[in-house]
Structures are given as structure tokens and as C-alpha cells.
## 1
Amino acid sequence: MVSTFVFKGEYKDMAHALTYDAKMFESYYDCMIFSALHGLLNNAFDDQSVSEGEDSDSSASANPAVVRSEIIVKYKREYCAFRRLIILNEKKRNLGPDERIDNAFKYDIFVDSNSSKQTAAISKYSENSKIIKGYVYGGLRILYEKYKDKLKNYTELLEAVDRHIHSFGEESGLIMVGEENVDDGDLNTL
Amino acid sequence: MCVEEWRRLKEREKVNEEAVRSYAISAVRSGLKFLKSQYFSYLYGKASEFLDELDFSGKDIPDITNETIYYLEKRGKCICGTDLTKNSECLNNLKGLLAFLPPESIGNQIRMFNNDASEQNNIMEDANKQYEYYYSSYSRQSDIQEGELSRVADLERKIVEKSPEDYQKNIDYLNARIRELRSLNQSYIGDLKRVDDELAKANEDLDQASKLDEANKPIREKMRYVEILATRASNLYEEESAKNLEEMQRTFEKVFSDMYHGKRKVWLSDKYEIILSDNRFKLDPSKGLETVVNFAFVASLLKMAKERMKKGGDVKAEPYPLVMDAVFTNTDQKHIENISRQLPLLTEQAILALMDKDWKNAKPTLEAHLGKLYRIVKKSETESVIEEVI
């Protein structure tokens, strides 16, 4: 059931700008994972059926922004954990506790494309994938908005990332930030 | 000095810029990885809070594993006795239980999920360390770059602001340095002389020491023998050279006086240079006198050689003819007669090429000694023939 993830339309340009122009991410895979988590934490969800639109240039097929299924298989463990975290924490679908549990641990089973396990067919994997994609796009949009003015200046970019790290650490209570108090953070909804 | 440093720092600018950029990119990437690990940790925490509130008691079937189901399917008979090969609904119900049994049971998966959550803290810590490393590397490289850029700006200001007085000061400094180095050079030359003296003294000591050594005696005697031989040869050469010079000087003056009818004097220097004078001043010879002088010199050499051969000394050789071309050119009639008179006395045989006008003057004196006479007849610019006259 693992399938290739394709950034389309304006999201393709944003992913390209962050990953290849500014070199913020090593690959589209990193961009995808980070964007989805960022979208979830900021309640940023874009409905792809509405927002994908058309690719902004004719060379889209020649230069696609794609996360290939073999890359996902390569990072299988992280990817499974990532999906479960999204499914368990998302409130977009207003699922009840049992449904969220079953969805995360029973139906969203990672199965590679060669498997013939029947459980894959009956899972809600593709439904979950749509939700995840919505957060990828929503997160990517706000991430791009946050950094777009700093993409060409690596000093400003690094300073912005550093502020982002500190502010999230402070808000989430994961790290002690010290005396700095930066209002630049996430956690709007969770 | 300013310019040198400025040039060196300017050359490093691009390297510094690239290093800062490279560290910044690595810091951004590792920073976002660290942030991602924070996101994971935070979401694990939230998910754990949610899971802790739930009761999973009805989700798993205790003490049965998926192996049990696979065994019953293979056996074809359920625990209750139903024939599973004939009842597909029962078989499907049994297979449906697989989702609730280890290893894929929800309870088991939640345990694994919680383990992953604990491990996430380590992942976050590692990511933090990596980010700190790149960030501090970036800061350090930025400081270096900033320091060097600031230094370049200072140097540029100094270079531009330098007044003529500054340059004069620099020239004065360099001149003083030159004087200092020259003085040092003199001192080294003095040192060198002192070392040379010490070396000579050391050689002398070595000689003394070797004299005392019996083993060196035969070599020392041979060296002494060679030294005496060399000294004798050198003395003999000098004595003979002095004698030859004296004899040549005497002969040359005599031959010249026999050939020359004017008032000028001639003599040879120690280096066999011909010197003409009027008894008071050194003079340059005319073309005609130059011919007489050269002739006298050659004739003197021939005379001395002839006399040596007669004496039967060290000189042993056959008599060779004296061959001369245009020998009387620019020479007056009287000199031609004088030279012609001397020629038969000085040489065994002479071959002379003369013009008709000179032969006319020489003929009365030389005719009696004539062996053969030829005439060169010019037919054209490119052709001449030789005719035998006598």
C-alpha cells in the first residue's frame, strides 16, 4: 500500500524552494515529514482536492517533486511512527478514542507493495494518507510563508530556524531555553 | 607590508565565505532535524497521555497467539470440532482474530509504541548535539570571517590614507635596514677571514702532526720531491723566458735598424709588444713603417730560430719557407731595398707575392737569389692564369 508521494501545483514550487533552493532539507522526504508535523501542530490543513491545482510550469513532469515509495520503505520505522502520531493526534475527523486506536494500530499497517496481505486492502490506509497529505500541504504552506523572505540569506535563515527551535522548546517544555523569550512558535491547537 | 597582508586576506575572502555558507546550511538542516525530533517527542507525549486514559482489556485475547490460528487452519478442524475445510465462514472468523493476537495485537503494538516514545528522547538528544556542533562551527567561522573583513577594511583605509611622509618614512626605514645589513655583511666577511686563518692554522697543525707520524714519512718525501721539481721547472722557465726576451729584443733592434733608414727607435716590452718612439714620445707607426716593423719582427724570429738550429740546441726542425703576400705595400723604395737585402740572410727560402712596381725596386737586390719567377695574369674579374717566367 505504500505509494509515492507527489507534491503538486504550488506545493511543488514551495517544496522545491525549501529543499533545493534554500537547502533547508536534505530531501523531499524530510520536507514531507517536517511539513506534516508542522501542519498538525499548527492546525494547518489544506484540502488537496481543492488546493493542488495545476503545476505552475510545463516542465513539471520532467522535474517532479516526488518522494518515491522505495525511500519511504527505506525509512519504514520512522515513517510508521510518523503516521501513527498523526492519526492519534489529529482532530480533523473528530474520531472517537476506539476509532483512533484501531485506525492507528489495526488498520494503518505498513505493507510494502509486494505484499499480498489482505489486511492492507481492508485498511483505512488511503484515507489516513489523505489526512496526512492535507497536513503536509497545510504545514508546507505556513512553513514557506514563515521562511520565504529569508531563503536567499543563509545567516537570516539560520537565525530564524534557531528562533523557531527555541520557541518550540520553550512552549512545549521539552527544553529549557534560558532567558530568551521568542514569540515565534507552534502548538496552536494541541 | 599593509598591501601584502591586504592581498593575502583578500585571497581568503571567498574561502571564508564558502566555509560560513557551508556551516550555515549544515546548521539549518541539523536544526530542522532537531526540531523534527522535538515534534516527534511532543506528539509521542500527547499520544501517550491519550493512550494512558484508555482501557485495552477487551482488545486482546489472552494466551492465544497467531500460531494457534495457523495451526487450526492447517489441521482443518476448530477447537469446538467444526470442520474448517467445509466451513469458510468459521475460518474467516478465526482469521479475523489475527488482528487481536500477538505479535500484531493492539496491546503488543502499543507497548512497542511506548518503547519508541522512550527512545525518542535519545534521538532528540543526539539531534541537539549535532545542531549545537554545526551552529558553533558556523559562529566560529563567522567570527573569523568578520575579523578578517574588518582587518581588510582597516588596511584599505591605511593604504588610502598613507601620506607622502609615510612613504618617505618607509624609504628611510628601508635605507637604514640596508645599512644595517651591509654592516652585518662586513662583519660576516671579517668572520670569514678569521675562519680562513683558523683553517690555515689547522692545516699547519695537521702538517706538523703528520711529520711526527712515521707512517706518513714516505708520502711526505715524495711530496717534497715533487715540490722541488715543480720549483725547479718554474725557475728554469722564468730564466729561459728572460733570456729569450733579451735576445729577441737585441735581435729585433738590430734587424729593424738594418731595414729602417729613419730616426725612430723600436723595442720590445716584457710582453713582446712593439713600441715605437722618437726617443721622447711613444708614437703610432705609419702604414709603411708598420710593414717594416712587422717584417723586422718576423725576420727576428726567423733569425733566432736559424741560429738555434745552427747551435744544435733544443730546437730541432726542418727549415720552412717564409711566405708573404703584398710584403712591400706602402713601403718606399729605400725600405724595399733594405728588406730585400736582409731577406736572403735571414731565411732559407722565401715565397713572395709582389706587385710589378714593388718587384721593380726589389729586383736589383733579390735577382741574384731568385729560384723561380711566376706572373699572375688577370683575364677577368673571375679568372686569372699563372705563367712561368723563369
## 2
Amino acid sequence: MSAVPERIHLSMSVNGEETPVSFAPYKTLLEVLREDLNLTGTKHGCELGECGACAVLVDGQPQLSCLVLGAACAGRRIETVEGMANGAELHPLQAAFADLGAAQCGYCTPGILMTAKALLDKDLNVNREQIKEAISGNLCRCTGYQQIFEAIEEAARRMQP
Amino acid sequence: MSLKVIGKARRRVDGRAKVTGLTKFADDIVLPRMLHCRLLRSPHPHAEILEINTQRAEKHPGVHLVLTGMDFPITFGIMPVSQDEYPLANGRVRYVGDPVAAVIAKDEQTATAALDLIEVNYKSLKTISNSEEALQNPEPRIHDYGERGNIHRIQSYEFGDVAEALAKSAHVFDDVFFYEGNTHLPIEQHASVAAPDGEGKLTLWSSTQVPHYIHRALARALQMPAAHIRVIACPNGGGFGGKCDLHNHEIVVSRAALKLGRPVKICLNREEVFYMHRGRHPVLMRMRTGVTKDGKLTGMHLQTLLDGGGYGGYGAASTFYTGVLQTVTYELPRYKFDACRAFTNKPPCGPKRGHGTPQPRFGQEVQLDKIAEKLKLDPAELRLGMVAKPNSLTANWLKIGSIGLAECIRQVVARSDWENKFKKMKRGKGIGIACSSYLSGAGLPIYWNKMPHSGVQLLADRSGQVTVFCGATEIGQGSDDVLAAMVAEVLGMDPYDIRCVTGDTALTPVDLGSYSSRVTVMMGNAAIQAAEKLKAQIAEAAAEQLEVIPSRLSFSQGKVFVTEKSNKSLSFKEAIEFAEAKFGTLGAVGSYSPPRAPGRYKGAGVGPSPAYSYSACVLEVEVDEATGWFAVPKIWIAHDIGRTVNPVLARGQVEGSVYMGLAEALMEEQVFRRLPPKMSQALVHKIPSLLEYKSPTSLDMPEVDTVLIEDPDPNCPFGAKEAGQGPLLPVMPALANAIFDAVGVRIDELPITPDKVLRALELKAQGKTPRVGPESFPAVPYPKSIFVLPPWEGGDGKESKRNDAAAVV
């Protein structure tokens, strides 16, 4: 008999809500979010840390949730795309992405939104090169990235105090 | 005509769902009692299956079902001529990754563990690793159908006497090019969920671009009436042509769900997506082109050899597409086109953005650069001087409508400051130009029928709500947005007030799917027709109330009003109420079929389109001669779109195409290697991961300057042509041509990598021909040509005897 338990139980903060959850111990944070918490807004493209589609914020830092064990997230602060909007009001990044064509198929979008949010949470005065650098781990096959850069710049403008 | 919606930059109608994570992709669907499926795939590129033992897997705790080829006696294939696949291998595997067995279990983990318990006894067969090997080795045959040996398709067409045209030309350019295969790499891995409904009928949710074709093929594969199958195309997380086939896993989960009476899901992992492939064919090509002393084309003889991989798929169409569109860009008096597709023991190839046309386009545009160089002509001027004429026929009887290519060329030349850069920049810096054209929808469906290519149904009721139903599929391109925009424009509504129900074979009229850049034109025309019918009903009822004749009414901004007296009006909701009271339940349908193509010869069905889009591209490059390393700082693209439906989306389609073209030009390749003999000698993918299969990141993507040229086409809805594929095509040759301008070397194969540039520079330094590319074209046993006279040589579009032709000429 294996000493590994079938499920482990822990609690993490997900989009500002204290969230108890039980899951198989081998599961990644990506799987816990999608399969055990039904937060399917976070996507997967490789489950090997290569595409960036599964990026979420862990304690404010962008992390590839496919490379983070759920078991390592007890007590951590997790932010996903589902938590971005303030009620019905879209986050400025979401609004700019929708307005400026930064989301085509929309599959890489949640990961890029979260990565961009971490960037703008730190500094609203970002230039194009910093934006390119920040999202260089997020692959997008639809846009050619240009409209994504523009949307992040526009969001930064709209977020200026 | 003053347009209120068409042409205005707007947030797409499905934009909010896409940025909130609410868009439901296939893998986001979770159903009660859902089981999970995993496929066991062949580790051998070519083998007989002697025995499969599934007993241990069946007994594994948590396993509900194990399926093998025994459970699927019937072949399938997306085209009627390519019924050569089994959902699970039936005694034979033809590429590494060919599905052999399936396990359905309580979760993915359990299913994966059980795969290891299936014992398969294979007998390895000799493998064919590329198209030239396929020609040299007719045995063992990979399939027992096809032309002969390992040739899947082989054909030849000649439009006018090309040998004569070449003999009379001032110059004949003879070049061999190679275009390596590459894959779609959608970020969404293919996923499907199949579930029996309350009545025992089947629903399949899937990442597919073509729900109608899947519906049709699935009915055959499952031997079930199509009326008992519902296929729902979930929004695709990128398609690019890779979700156009009926895939093995879609049939497997459907059968499993019906057998178990429970929902069954599968989501492929990334490695499986690489092996399933269906992407760009590797194509070797030879192009002999005659020109006059001032560089006008006199004739072209194109020969192509496609490496098809292990199955037919769309390959019969791909084979045609490596030649048929060579004629629609420039005036070409005579044209001969030989094509051959070989079976090899690799993942099957199929349609990827541009389907079969980027390969010969690369060759043609690089060859034009060589022609301009030899004749000391400016390559932009050379092209401008021979742009095909609007409303003309081509040598192979394709009908060109509008053509905005000359303006595209002028725009990219002006915006890039071409005249001050071409041949004028310092050594190492270069600039190149190339053009292209593409279909706005294939003229024929993939199975012969006389029914519409797209149908749209509208429902309006007293709530003021308008719902539009269409089988078209949202793959990121903005299909739903185009649909809403067309209806909104006609009815004078806000597009955000229209509900789109799309891609569901149970609810929506047939649309053939999101491929061949057909959606805007075909769905758009059908939508306009339906909306005009509904508008006529509403106008008749509203006219009665407003006491005018219907033709005096305007529909705009949610109101129906007398055109000259806008205060005499009804709200749209009031007008619908009157119409519903007068006519009963309101609804209207529209449908679209492309115009009949003028060609009458066998094979004339591939190539015709309601309209062709055109693009021109200028690209700048900086080459480090010491290392061969190079960078692309900027790309200019102009695209003849006819009319822009939504500029935000149109620009995105164009820039996304440029991105994908640049990716193919610089780095993407689907390449295979043999494992050492002491292992299996299997042909395995060199780089089946997103990290190793290089694609450009945000840091690699240069600035793109985009111009949309509007030259409305009368066959198109509000004049709008395609934008999602054509602009990919000129990028690859523009890079090759820019490299030549920068350092004087020719790279006649793709991708163009620094090591190839360095090798060519070394050849140049040694005084040898500064070129890297294929050295020769093999002897391919092309058949005698189907001979057709071009329109200007007295032809009638039918095949004619060559002797008759000689008499005419």
C-alpha cells in the first residue's frame, strides 16, 4: 500500500476568497483550478511550461500553473482571469484587449492578461520593450502580438491615476 | 450607400467572453458521470499488428472500456476519395502516432496507466521517409489504393502549348525550390466530448472548424443516421486548418459514449497534436518560366512533388492547390502544371493556412526576383507591369473579379521607401518584395452536391430580439462578428443586440465550415439575403402603420422611419410587433452558392472562387556576414480586402497571417529523424514540443505596417473579400528576396536559417554559386497532360486534343 493519500485537503485564497479544496496530491495548480474548482478560464497548451497559456498570479507573481503543484499552494494568494473584472466592470486590460483586437481565438488570452496584470500592478509607465519582455513566455498564434502590445499600452494609459 | 456598421472599428461581439475566460472551449466542458479517454499510439512508423492483448488493461481498476481496431471495421476519411483511415488501426500502422487502442477510464491518470498494460505485437515493415524514397520504392505499398506503388495522386494539366511558349521566349528560368513541412500549432490542443442524450442520440462537442463535414463523416463512421447525431463546434482555440479533418479521437469517444451510455472526453496532449499534424506538406518543386526580353511572362511549367505522410486526408485537394492558383496574380498566357503526392510513413499532411499555395508561391516570387535581377529590372516595377486584369479569365479558366494588387504594390513601395532602399542600402542590409493571391472560399464543397454552401436563418419576435442561426464556426477569426455585422447593417440594428447561434448541426442551417477563407463571403451573402427578406416583412407592416409605401422606409440605429421625415418612425421593437401581428411568427432564411466556374475540364473544380484577395509585402532584413545571423526589423503589408467589415479584426487577420508566414520563413519545420538501428529505426518527430518547435515570441516579432486596400468585389457581401490566409503568402519569398538584396545569396528553400545563409556566403567567398537549395528535381512519372486551350486561344473551357490545339495555334 502506498503511503500517499488519495486526496489532500488544503485552503488557498482564490480571487480573494478563502477556498478549501480537496484533490489528488499529484495534481498541478492548473488541474486543481480547472478540475476541482471549475475555474476553466485558465487554459493549457502544453502542460510542460512552454506556452504560457496557464499563467496565473501566485502571491502577485505570474506563475505557470502547470508547473506548480497544488499541494504547494496552501495559504497562497491565487488570482485567475475569473477574478479580474470588478463585478460587471471589466478590468482595463480586459476592456482594452476586447476593444483593440488583442484576443482573437481567446485561448492564450487569460494567460497573457494575468501576465500583463502583474506587469501593470508594478508599474503603469511601461514601454513597448518592457511589454514584449514581460509576455515573451506567452505564445499567441493568432495576432502576431502587435494588437496585444497596443492593448496593454492602452490599458496602462486608462489606468493612470 | 452609407454604412453604419460595416467598416467601423468595433469590439467584436464575442469579445467580452474571450477576455473573461467565459468562452467555452471543448476541454472546458464538464458533464456529470463523464469518463476520460486516452489513445495508445503506434511507436512504429510502419508495421503490421500481429496481436493485441487488452485483458490486463480491461481489469485495471477504474477502466470502463478498452477499444481496438476490432471495434471499428469501417474506414473513414474527410473526402469521399480518401476513405483510407481506421479510427483505431486495423492490422496496420502507417506512422509513429497512428492510434492503435483506446482506454476509457474514470480519469485521465487511470486511462494513461492502463495504456501501459496493453500488449501489442508488431512486425516492422520497411519505412518510406520522404517523397523521393516513395518514388524509388513502390514496395511495400503503404496503401493498396492510389495511383500505383506509393504514389497517392499524380496528374498533369496543360493550358496552351507551354513547350512552344518556352521555346519562343527570350529567356527561360529554370529553378528548383523546396518548402519544408510545418504544423499549425494551435495553442488549444484538440479536445472532444461525446455524450448520449436522453433519447440515446449522440452529441459531440469538438474543437473542429467543420461541424457539417464532421457530422456527415461521423454518421458514416458510426453507421448511424445523421439525424441521431448532433455535432457542436466549440469556439476553436486556433485552427489554421488543423481542425478540418474528422480525427480518430472524435470517432472513438463517440463510439465509447454510445457503448457506455455516459459522456466521454478526450483532450490530446501536445505531443499527440504534433503527431496528428495534417499540416503543411513538404513540397519539392521545379519551375520553368519563359519571359520576354522586357520581363513579361510567356509561359510556366510547374512541377510539384508533395510528401503526403501516411494517409489521404485532404491531400487530393492539396495536390491541386500546389498549382491551380499560380495563374491569378500575373498575366500568364500559357501554363502547365504537373503534381504528384506520395505516401510516406509520417504523420499525414493536409491543409494549413494557404493550403498548398504558399509552396509554389514561394518559388514563383523568388524566381520573379531572379528574373528582375537578370533583366536589370526593378522587381516592384516588374510585378506592377503584369498584374492580372480585373474581370478576366486566367489560362486555366479561373474567373478573376476585382483585383487591387497594383494599389497594394504601390502602397508597400511608397510606405517602405523602396526606391531609396532597394540596392541602395549598405552591405548587409536588404529589402525584398513579393505578392500573392488567395481564394475567398473554394468554389466547390469537398463532396459533390448542388446544395448551398452556406445557410442562414433569422428569428425575430415581439421582444425586439433577433437571433441568427448559421453553421459557420468561430475559430478566432471573428465569424460571429461578421455574421452579426451583416445582419445588423441590413436591419439597422446594433450588432451587440443580435444573438448568434453558430456551429451546431442540430440547430443551425448548414455552412460548410471555417476553411478556404470562405466564411465572410459565403455566410455573409446568405446572411444579407435572409436579413433582406426579414426586412421586407417588417417594412411592409411598418409602412401600413406609417402610411407610406415600404420603399420609403429606412432602417437605422434601432428605428424604422420614413426616409425624408425621420420623426415619422417606429422603434425596431414596435415594427417587429406589427410585423408579427400581420404575418405571424417571423423568420427568414438565406443561402449562398458560389457562381458556376467557367472551366469545363475534369479537375476544373479546384481553384474557382467567388473572389480572389491580393497582397503585397515588403520586408527589410539585416544580415551579419560573419555569422549568417539575421534580423527582420520591419515588414510592410498591403492587403486587397475588397471591403473591411471590422477594421480591428481585419488588421488582426492580416498581422496574424504575416506573423505565421514569418514563422514559416524563419524557423518552423515539422521534421523527422530515424532512431538508430539498435532501437527501432522509427521515424520520429525531431521536436514535438512547444519549446523545441520554434515559433516567434513577442520578442521575435518585428513591427508590421498594415494597409487595407478597399476595392469592393461585386460577388462579395458589401464587397468584402477574405483576409485570413492571403497575407501569409508573400512573407516567405519577401524574406528570401531581401536576403539576396542584403548579401547577394539565394536561399531557395524554407525555412531560411542563419546556417543556410552562412553556407551560401561561404560558397560565394569560394567563388561558387552562392545558393542553398535543392540541387535537382527527381524523375516523376507524370501522366500525359489533360490539355485545355486558354480562353484567348479559342478554347471553350473543355479538354481538347493537342492536335486540334496545334491546328489552332
